[in-house]
User: Fold these one by one.
Assistant:
Number 1:
Amino acid sequence: MTLSIRWKVALGTLLAIALGLAVAGVLAFRSIEQLELARVEEALTARTGLAALTLEPFLAHPADPLRLQAVAHELARQASARVTVIDQVGRVLADSAVPDEAVAQIENHGSRPEVKLAFAAGRGTDVRRSDTTGQRTVYLALRVAPAGAKNPSVVRVGMPLTILEQRVYDLQRALAIALSVAFVVSVMVSFLIAGGLTRPLQDMATVARQLTKGAFGQRIQTVSHDEVGMLAKTFNQMADQLDRDFNARRRLEKVRKDFVANVSHELRTPLTSIKGYVEALLDGAKDNPAEAEQFLRIILKQSDRLNLILEDLLQLSQIESGQVQFRQEPVLLSTIAERTLASLKPLAEKKGHAVTVAIPAGLPLVTGDEERLVQVLTNLLDNAVKYTPERGTIQIAARAVDEAWLELSVTDTGIGIPNADRPRVFERFYRVDKARSRELGGTGLGLAIVKHIVERHGGQVWVEGNTPVGSRFVVRLPTASSIGHNEAVPNQSTSHQV
């Protein structure tokens, strides 16, 4: 049977506690017994010394055995102990534990450990079961050598351990009850601790199972700040990442499907046109020179459009995948404006547009790829020229937002962009007026390319409405000083009208 982690933690904790309590109990039982025995020996020392002092006068000269036995009985009564007098050869002269007439029949005590030690060193102790009384007894023997006596004797006092054993038993029983209560409390505490430790792990297992089923919104609720809490927090972060990744993949899949659909639609239009006019030529239009030339010009125009779409797609793909390496060098906004205006000046003049450039002196430099920034402004200015009616007004302007940012804007008096469409104009193939966009030759990818180039420069791009008509596209770029350069050109002012 497989145990859950909660039971493993609880049983492991209980085993450790049980072993600790068992070791502590054994040591405590032994300590109690030794402590009580030491107290008995301390009391026995005093009583034995008093008995030896009292019996010493009776041992100085051969004493009456009955008198010696009577004194031993009295001392035993007062000391609540057994008093024994032993001569040098081990013969018992008096013993309070036996009747007077039985003293002579007591076996020789010369071999008793405490007696041998007393004769050899003056003092001897031993703990054993008495052959005479049958009780477990602690003995203390003192050698007594009265003045005038030929040979020393030994006075021995023995205290039965019956009372001591009962006291030790009572203390050990109380300790056993206390240890049992402690064990029961430990059982409850260990299960509480195991539950607190393993509940987040069980929650993680539950959430993990939910994640495998696709329920990415599940999270672990925890308030602890220990390792388990950190693990739960990390798990939640992983779930968040999975949720973002899943949503991102879902959005990416939608974008991919939309992209494929848009590409198919955009490519189908020129291909259908080319196919139709080729079929018309084959059906006989080739025999009419004027009509054939017109059809061929249309086919050429649609081929150019098809080629332009493919070029923009390739460029956008390279920028998104990071294959295009952007240079990082100081760039003047006035230089970008001049280069862009030079390339689009003929188209603007053809439609009679008034194009103005207003870039104040002293603007900081930006760091980036000049060619790509020219491409950004070219796309924006090209759209402004295309979607602004004849004799309209277009302005290229720049300003410093603060020390870290510059704004480059293109404002026109064209047809404008509705509020609902502004957030989406930077999407691939998104057009406000699809028919007019195709008529003007747009691929629907120019603003998407602009957005990616600007973001690769660490900037932002958006579109606003212009009052009273038209649109205002704004590109915000970081200054060179904000990313490690501190350069400025005091006289880069450009202000002229085409």
Number 2:
Amino acid sequence: MTKPASLLIIAAVFLGGASPTSSREGGTDLQPMPADLETRFALSALPAPLRGAVSVFLLDPETGYRLSRSGTSGVTCIVQRTAWELADDRDDIYIPLCYDAAGTKTYLKVIMDAARMRAQGVGPVALKAKVESLYADKTYGVPAKPGVSYMVAPVMRTIGPPDLKVHTMAMPHLMFYAPGVTNADIGAMPKLADFASLMNPFIDRQGNVEQSYMIQMLGATEKARILRDEKRLVADLCVYRQVLCLEHSEH
């Protein structure tokens, strides 16, 4: 993309050097999701055949993430509610994602630490600075080998194209670890205003060079299948909170 992205390209998609929007739906105090709904939402980030052997962590806004289900595959799934890159304690960020074993030890640890620090009262600007300092002094590292973060959920809410504002969207994709890699390195030319250009692999820099991913969007057929298979979850999320309705256009 013309500017490196920072949250997910999506939010998955995008932040980079851009300033996040200050408009919001809601406030700053996180509320816990019903455990069953949060579990289903977290697992929806993973292809259905892989869900049986994964670990799931649920968020307690007062303390941080707690283990709800222990798995054997090394994959861990959560719903991310704090995006440290945004330096904004919004309460309407919902990013279901799953990391493989290598990502669980590195990238997911950062997300969990951010949630814990937020619960302890660390403000958003200080939290962003703290995470950056922990990367700078090598407390945080990058995966020791290639790997993937699964983000094929039918719904997510975070900053995204075409304007880097917070949207509720259906944008299933995979994120392959690519610390330090740039779009120039792979000849990618993503453009936020041209969604078709995002269907080709591109690099999403989520806050810093260490957290860079090669993004591969799923195609229209796969997306339609996911929305069909997860129709009940999509409806339940909309009932739970209006900002999670896919037809919701405010941001």
Number 3:
Amino acid sequence: MSKFSSNEFSELDRFDHAILSALGQDGRMSVTDLAKKIGLSKSPTQARLKRLESDGFILGYRAMIDPIRLGMDHVAFLEVRLSDTREDALSAFNKAVSKIPEIEEVHLIAGNFDYLMKVRTRNMRDYRTVLAEKISTLPHLSSTSTFVAMQAIKEDVTAEFG
């Protein structure tokens, strides 16, 4: 959960939104190119960028790796149910799940199950191993249901802000 309120996000002006949008598309963009793109000079653009980083709106920069080219094309989504959903149990589960590298995403869900996970492996055999040896040992795990993705239609971690 974000430590920022929606009011803080709404306090960003159009230039801040433009910076976030541009960097969401190309995080390697130079400050000079960014300034041109958003319509400000370099110095105020750089100051805004530093503020967005220090205020936690920009969490970092990273390379986007193509998992398919690396042979990691098996994607499964798991519905996870816990035997205990008190805060201590959720905390223990969250801490343990963060240590499993094959799990790309984990979301606490308001619904008829507790978590939704995205797990990426090379193939079904590897997935079964991860499920049996890692996921099934998570604290307070009661049951899982697996749904295998046949094709990714849209996997875009960038979004328009503004």
Number 4:
Amino acid sequence: MIPFRVLLVTFLLTLLAFAVSLLLGIVGVVVGARLRGGTANMQVAYRDVAAPVAATVFAIVLVSSIFMEVRNYRQAKTLAGIEKIESMKD
């Protein structure tokens, strides 16, 4: 179940980061084109803003969610061991 949760959280947060960075990239490209008096090239928003941000967020979220899941697994395992020892004492 842990790999599924890691991949699900990674996918959802990467998708969210891509959407937000694409929105901000489009706004930035449109504002920049208006200020320069030219046309807006939307490829820049995808290629130079949204894709690198999504790739970076993917890597960070994947590594951090793996660490968090491993930590939670170890903590649950330790607590179950302590509970087992406590139940043997009674």
